[in-house]
Every structure is written in C-alpha cells, then in structure tokens.
Amino acid sequence: MKWKGRRQSANVEDRRGRSPKVLAGGGIGTLILVLAIYLLGGNPTELINTAQVTNQQSGAPYQGSEQENELAEFVSVVLAETEDAWTELFRRAGRQYEFPKLVLYSGSVQSACGYGSAATGPFYCPADHKVYLDLSFFQELQQKFGASGDFAMAYVIAHEVGHHVQTLLGINHQVQSQRSRLSTTDYNKLLVRLELQADYFAGVWAHYARRAKLLESGDIEEALNAASAVGDDRIQKAARGYVVPDSFTHGTSAQRMRWFQRGFQSGTIEEGDTFNMDIGR
Fold it and tell me: What is the per-residue pLDDT for 41?
C-alpha cells in the first residue's frame, strides 16, 4: 500500500499509555459497553473479566517504539483516506459526512459506551462516533488469524469506519431497536447482515483507494484474506472444532470476502443493502 507521504487525519486522538481508573467490579459504564459490544456482534466475556481490575492513569507522555509510531502514522493516513472517500460519497447522495474520531489506546480505554480493553479488539462506539483501536491488535491479526500485510490492517480500520457510516445513515439504530423484539437466533441474523454491510463499505473504500492510487499488487488479496480469517465459521472451527450457524454474528468467511469484493467492485452505497438482499452463505 502506497501510504507514506500522504495526508494524515486530524481526527486521531492518541491515548496510548493512559488507562482509565475503573472501580473493581466494573459499573454502569462497563455494562453499557458490554451491551454495545454484544449488539455489534462482539464477545464481551473478556471485557467483563478485565473490568475486575483497577487501572491507574499515568500522566507521563507515551514513548512508543519507532515501529509502533510508524504504525500510528499509517492508521492516521488510512483514516484520512476514508474521510476523503466518504465525503465524496455522501456529497453525491446530498448528505454531509461527519468525520469520526479514531482513538489509539494501549491496554484499556474509557469511551462514551463505557470501559473497553484490548481484549475486545477494535470497536466502534455509536454514542461518541469514535473508533477505538489498540495497535497491538495488528500483531494478533497476523499471528493469531494469519492475516498479514498493511492492507489487511487497512481493511480492519475501514470496516470500523463502515459502522460509523451505518450510524450516520440510521442503520445501527434500526438494528438495535429490534433487540427486544426478536429471538436471539433471529437477532443474530440481523447482526450478520450489519457486519457484512460494514465489510461491503470497507470494500467501497478500497474502490476509492484504487482510484487514489494507494493500492499495490496483492493489497486486495490481503484484505480478502483478513476478511476470511475473521469469519464466524473459521473462528468457531478453530476454537471448538465445530460450528454453530445460529450463533454467527459476523458472517462466514465466504460471506465476508464476497461482500468486501462486491463493495470494491461497485464503489457505491446503494448496492450494499444487505438487509434486503440475498447475502449468500
């Protein structure tokens, strides 16, 4: 990915090295984030365990390694590129795109949705329109999920920004409003469609990244490999030895790859209506 020397976003909030002070046992904030993570298809179990620990906030300036700081710069450039792409797309639709903030943190973080930790992975908080990211996740992405390459990392960021787009379009709210009306199985099916649409929107951004001459040979393959690596079926098979389709919340590897590819090919918002289209298997 040809990212060096390009514009960096002014909407990165660097909280690395700072941890929020949380009362033992968690609290209302923790419960809110647990709910938010669940609604967006995540697994809040590790967060609940982590919330039992009291963290001390450090006021010392954070000194990252050269490699980590370069990665932070990369994230800022990718965010800037998503800003450009979605500004254009929203303008075409007669709307104004509101930039999200991207919060870099290490270990733990306080969001408007409550307390979060690196164990939950990257997440988007609709309450404050911010994406939260611990840079150590990218190492996990490569080592645990076997998804390497800079565009695999860009896909993760673009997917979370996709959730922000869904929030601006009112889609997140519509899905969450169905939580109390549906069975767990039926609501999980809605979550899958929500996540696949975020994958589609990540692909839409990749379409514009190609136009902006960001892409290099093999970049799309890196993104597709990352999408495949985090499919519900693949994760469950590795963890349990079998899969439970009714518990899927993000979609299969094949679905995630297909919808990213579809977004990449179309470059439009309109063709990503996963809620009224056949999403495949």
Answer: 54
108 against 9, higher pLDDT: 9
Higher-pLDDT residue of 113 and 206 is 206
Two structure tokens written together for 153: 């990392």
Q: What global pTM score does this model have?
A: 0.84
Residue-wise pLDDT for 70-87, tens only, equals 999 999 999 999 999 999
CATH number assigned to the domain covering 12-272: 3.40.390
Dump pLDDT digits (tens) for 102-117: 999 999 899 998 888 8
